[in-house]
Design brief:
Strand content: 15-25%
CATH topology of the largest domain: FAD/NAD(P)-binding domain
Shape: elongated
Strand order of the largest sheet: 17-16-13-14-15-12-18
CATH class of the largest domain: Alpha Beta
Low-confidence stretches: none
Mean pLDDT: 96
Distance between the termini: 11 Å
Oligomer: single chain
Number of strands: 22
Bound molecules: flavin-adenine dinucleotide
CATH architecture of the largest domain: 3-Layer(bba) Sandwich
Largest sheet: 7 strands, antiparallel
């Protein structure tokens, strides 16, 4: 049996290795359009490769996938994060989990994962062809014909693991698969605003951010950057809102509640209590709600509250303005920036095109798809790679 895996990335390698283990007598070839293998694995996780996540239950994993979500439940039950860590450990790669549940190789070096995969490829005599860019696919009665500019290959079974390549999506569309238009996910918001100007590096523990005119609403840490705002709260919004924000051309408004979950009435009442119980206290020296001091001072300045003003002299107008800024600060977002280059693409081959029990295309026999080529994407935390490992494993067991 001849198998061709198109794409020498995470999903392609993992699928090929597991097929080879299950079917030692099959002839497996990975074709890769560049001269580099596993290049995204190399740069992933800042060079450390956040290979998976420490959460293990499928029900805990699914909420991290804006595209895919519940449909992936069975996938993670069959081959989840714990199975991936066991898989690596069995092949000599130990992993460790950090406090936020991200899992890395114990060496903290992505090369460890690459070396492991390359060793497995050699062990199972998998053929690798680099500089082989697939230009067209054709199914005949008996097999698949894969053509590059210089060579034509034939395979009984074909695995597509081309990642987020627009050219490959076009080829798949021409083959007859339906594609959800790709848009970026995981980006930060560009904001030019006096309230955050020159305050890059300031971080907030837990804020709530809403996108005006949508249902998008997230809580979590927030970070002021050179270009605007980032941090988990923003990245979650960018992932869940990837499609909607693209239609807005990344121009929209956000409302920030710096207190996390306090209502305007609660904050007003706290400020009035402070005014009567500590009338001499200078507000500028006592940031509330764990707000970093530099930002607190900036907000007071923005609300025209002098740094020497004692709490007892706060006017009703000043209190109202501060309440608004703390619970419903309105900011204009104009554009997006890439988060540490760790963008992923939302979109790809429609999930309804594949049988999720096998990852075989429903309308094309002997054609399987894994990884970012599919319309699956996740938040940061090792979830994007996990989607590659889980699909690759299921293909290998069912092909
Ligand atoms: C900077 C960065 C850091 C990241 N860090 C993490 C992380 O730490 N943890 C995590 O979970 N996720 C991370 N991600 C996301 C993760 O890298 C991807 O989700 C994952 O690599 C997708 O794997 P894939 O095999 O589907 O695609 P890729 O890894 O992109 O592989 C696809 C391969 O197919 C090849 N190809 C494309 N078209 C053709 C063709 N026509 N013919 C032949 N070959 C072709 C490409 O050249 C490529 O080598 C990161 C992403 C980036 C950009």
């Amino acid at each position: 049996m001849k198998v061709i895996v198109i794409g020498g990335g995470a999903a392609g390698f993992f699928t090929a290795i597991n097929i080879a283990e299950k079917h030692p007598d099959w002839q497996i070839t990975i074709v890769e359009k560049t001269n580099k293998l596993l290049s995204k694995v190399k740069i992933s996780g800042g060079g450390r490769c956040n290979v998976t996540n420490g959460r293990t239950a499928a029900s805990e994993l699914v909420p991290f996938y804006p595209r895919g979500g519940k449909k992936l439940y069975g996938l993670f039950q069959e081959f989840g994060t714990a199975e991936m860590r066991k898989w690596l450990s069995k092949r000599g790669v130990n992993t460790h989990e950090e406090a936020d549940h991200r899992v890395f190789p114990a060496t903290n070096d992505s090369q460890t994962i690459i070396d492991c995969f390359l060793q497995q490829v050699r062990k199972h005599s998998i053929t690798i062809k680099t500089n082989f860019s697939v230009l067209s696919l054709r199914q005949t009665e008996e097999s698949w014909i894969v053509r590059s500019s210089s060579e034509t290959l034939q395979a009984d079974k074909l695995i597509i693991a081309t990642g987020s390549s627009p050219v490959a999506w076009k080829t798949l569309q021409q083959t007859g698969l339906e594609i959800v238009e790709p848009v970026p996910s995981l980006f930060t918001f560009n904001i030019k605003d006096a309230r955050i100007k020159d305050l890059m590096g300031i971080a907030f523990g837990n804020v709530s951010v809403k996108i005006v005119g949508t249902k998008l609403d997230e809580t979590g840490p927030l970070l002021i950057t050179h270009w605007g705002l980032s941090g988990p709260a923003i990245l979650k919004l960018s992932a869940w809102g990837a499609r909607e924000l693209s239609t807005k051309n990344y121009h929209f408004q956000i409302l920030i509640n710096y207190t996390g979950d306090q209502s305007a009435d609660q904050v007003r009442s706290n400020l009035n209590d402070l005014k009567s119980s500590n009338p001499k206290r200078k507000l500028s020296n006592h940031p509330m709600y764990d707000i970093p001091k530099r930002f607190w001072e900036r907000l007071l300045e923005y609300c025209e509250i002098g740094s020497d003003l004692p709490a007892g002299e706060l006017s009703k107008k000043q209190i109202n303005k501060l309440v608004e800024e703390l619970t419903q600060g309105l900011y204009d977002v104009k554009g997006k920036s890439t988060f540490k280059e760790e963008f992923v693409t939302s979109g790809g081959v429609k999930l309804s095109e594949v049988d999720l029990k096998t990852f075989e295309a429903k309308r094309f026999k002997n054609l399987y798809l894994a990884g970012e080529v599919l319309d699956i994407d996740a938040l940061t935390g090792g979830f994007n790679f996990q989607a590659c490992w889980s699909a690759g494993w299921i293909i290998s067991q069912n092909i």
